[in-house]
Amino acid sequence: MKPRLYFIAGISGSGKTTVGRRIEQLGEVAFDSKIQKGLFHFADEDGNQPDDYQPNDSDWMEKYHWVLNKPMLDNLMEQNKTAKRVFLCGGADDLMQYWPLGEKVFLLKVDGETMLKRLREEKRDNSFGKDKQTQDRLLERLDRYQDKMGRLGAILIDAKKSVDEIVQKILEQSK
User: Fold this and answer.
1) What's the CATH architecture for 4-172?
2) Which of 63, 155, 156, 161 is 20 to 30 Å from the Cα of 8, by its Cα?
3) Are 170 and 36 in contact (CB under 8 A)?
4) Rounded distance, CA 95 to CA 102, Å?
5) Do 30 and 86 form a contact (C-beta atoms < 8 A)?
6) Nearest-5° angle of CA 106, CA 109, CA 114?
7) Order of strands across the sheet with 104-109?
8) Do 26 and 167 contact (CB within 8 A), yes or no?
9) Contact 64/58 with Cβ under 8 angstroms?
């Protein structure tokens, strides 16, 4: 039997990793780029990964996109084939093309002020979004991204709620 796949998406700072970690603490299976290194990565249109990371270089950002490592996801799904359900937490640029593989998509919807506060937290476990240029780019994209996800059928979850409330809502809707 194959586990049911659920997507938990959201812009940087929406809480995907925090939600994924809490889901794991509850005995469920969750995949996330900070839990499974390499699950998402930057690549160009031919799949080539960059030698360096230059998020403040507009030419670099034009060339490379944050994408899902589909072979790694397939491998993780195979390793967890006895699980009832699996949650994939991520915000890859190409994630929507994989939605048909899953049961539902949950969008952690966040406002700009909350997103910026979270991106600026000292305890944040990655550097993406800590600089003003990236924050401005994310703010400019925020409403467009969330509106598009909602129009495409993502289930909107208020990311300002507590992590326990968010996880409870997701688990209830993925039975």
Assistant:
1) 3-Layer(aba) Sandwich (3.40)
2) 63
3) no
4) 11
5) yes
6) 145
7) 29-32, 85-89, 4-9, 104-109, 155-158
8) yes
9) no
Q: For residue range 120-160, what is the model confidence (pLDDT) as tens digits? A: 888 877 777 778 888 898 899 999 999 999 999 999 999 99
C-alpha dihedral sign at 76, 83, 102, 170 = negative
For 5, the enclosing helix (H) or strand (E) is strand 4-9
Q: Which two tokens stand for residue 63?
A: 């060339």
CB-based contacts of 100, cutoff 8 Å, min separation 6: none
Report strand pairing: 104-109 vs 4-9: parallel
How long, in residues, is the chain?
175
The ranges assigned to domains in the chain are 4-172
Q: Which residue has the tokens 């476990």?
A: 125
* Helices and strands counted in the chain (H then E): 6, 7
pLDDT by residue (tens digit) across 108-121?
999 999 998 988 88
Q: Pull the structure tokens for residue 59.
A: 């030419």
In 28-154 the beta strands, taken as DSSP E runs, fall at 29-32, 40-43, 65-68, 85-89, 104-109
Spatial CA neighbour of 77 closest among 19, 41, 32, 29: 29
Q: Which two tokens stand for residue 149?
A: 């996800």
